[in-house]
Amino acid sequence: GGHVLAGTAAGRTDISASAPGAGVRIAAGQGIGDLTEADSEAVDAPGQAPGTANLITPVPNPLIIRSPSLSLSTAAGSIDAIDSAAVSAGSLSAPQGSVQLQGLQGLVLASVTAADQVDLSAGGALQLGAVQSGGSQTLQSVGELTADSLRTTGVPGDPGNIDLVSTQGGIRVGSLVSNGGVGANALGAISFGALSSNGPLDMNSQTSLSLPAIHIGSGSIFGAPTIDIASITPVAGSSGVFTLDLGGAAGAVGLSASVHILTSLPVSIGNLREQQATIVSTSPNFSIRHGYIVDQMNLQLPYQQIHLSSLSPQPVSPFVEGLFNPHLAFSLSQIGYRTTSDAFFINNTPSSQLVYAVGGGQVLNQNDVADFVRNLRNGEPLGLLQAGGWPLPWLSPEANSSLPYQSASPIAWPAPSAVDTGSPASLGLQRSHGALLLKGL
């Protein structure tokens, strides 16, 4: 009904069971290795207060075990232990405390339950069945880290974060439900069968990241050479802008990312660093603040489909907005039909509304020739460019000189009333000594 306490001698093993089929089973009423007993003297010295020689303090002192089979449980109190053997079968239970176990070799545990925190580490592979706790879970391994299910419910002062680390292997989890956030860092591949988290994810793999349909909090970071996420949905109760980052491992440029984002909330990708990216979102308000695409990006949104290429200015389809970005870095915002970007527009659709962001300012309908045709076709108001043409007075000379279409003399856009929108419009172009002339209206 009390505590099971460890010794204090250096290099000791408190309990050993190494014969074939042997194991260690401890059921304590209070705790295991959760207190420290001073064993410096057998009895109190003259003049010492009673109990000084074997003073017990509330400082954890792990019980050191050597056994391939392990079963530790407490009715009340916590578990703190070390197993120096390769554990092939084990279970841990602390329904009113926390669990901490360090496996110096591989560690296989069928079940782990705790009211508070769970802290498990393995010098080899860490193989887990079901792990459930009120507080946070910290699971670390040198080799592969696998688990059937991980779940936290949260306790006062601890939301129940889950942190997973494999320094030389990968991470594979069947099902994860976190009341807090989730962190996963691995040399190898990271994959989950099912995942739900009230907080954000921070996942980094040197190999690949594969996730199913997930429900998560805002502010997540995904980093891996290849990223494949079936769908991302903000967790119930989310509001405001839903943010995330996508890129390679540890902030590098990734090879590819394929992501579906299912929400009507505004979505903002703070950092997107990929060679290729395919992003589908149901948000009518979508932005990429700091984009860096080496090859191409395909973006499918409710009001527009956008193709951005860093290699070719060739449009892919008359029904897909085209952007050309030879400088690789870019920003983009899509609100309804309006696309704002500092990449060059090379193709617009009949519904496109384009805004070119350059030099600290914005130029409405930067792709002026294509937009002029669309204005005529759709009967929209004309003259969205500054009356009188170039230079645009709110931009710097450098910004004006970077515009893809320029004129040596002002372009006189016809007033809306002067355009017959009921008949087809034709538009011819003539370039003479740097001037761009519009005729054939």
Structural class: mainly beta
> Biggest β-sheet, characterized?
31 strands, mixed
Radius of gyration over C-alpha positions, nearest whole angstrom: 32 Å
Give the termini separation: 96 Å
**Mean pLDDT reading:** 83
- Per the principal axes of the C-alpha atoms, what is the gross shape? elongated
Percent strand: over 45%
Strand count: 35
**In oligomeric terms, what are we looking at?**
single chain
| Secondary structure tally, helices | 2
Taking pLDDT < 50 over at least 5 consecutive residues as the criterion, the unreliable ranges are 382-441
The helix fraction, in percent, is: under 10%
Pick out its properties:
441 residues; 31-stranded mixed beta sheet; disordered C terminus; 48% strand; single chain; elongated; 2 helices; 4% helix; two-stranded antiparallel sheet; mainly beta
List the SSEs and their pairings.
Elements: E1 15-16, E2 24-28, E3 36-37, E4 56-57, E5 63-66, E6 69-74, E7 79-83, E8 89-94, E9 99-103, E10 107-114, E11 118-122, E12 126-133, E13 137-141, E14 145-152, E15 162-166, E16 171-178, E17 182-186, E18 190-197, E19 201-205, E20 209-216, E21 220-223, E22 226-234, E23 242-247, E24 254-261, E25 267-281, E26 285-300, E27 305-309, E28 321-324, E29 329-335, E30 338-341, E31 344-347, E32 353-358, E33 361-364, H1 368-378, H2 397-401, E34 428-432, E35 435-439
Parallel strand pairs: 1-5, 2-6, 5-7, 6-8, 7-9, 8-10, 9-11, 10-12, 11-13, 12-14, 13-15, 14-16, 15-17, 16-18, 17-19, 18-20, 19-21, 20-22, 21-23, 22-24, 23-25, 24-25, 25-26, 27-28, 30-32
Antiparallel strand pairs: 3-4, 26-27, 26-29, 28-31, 29-30, 32-33, 34-35
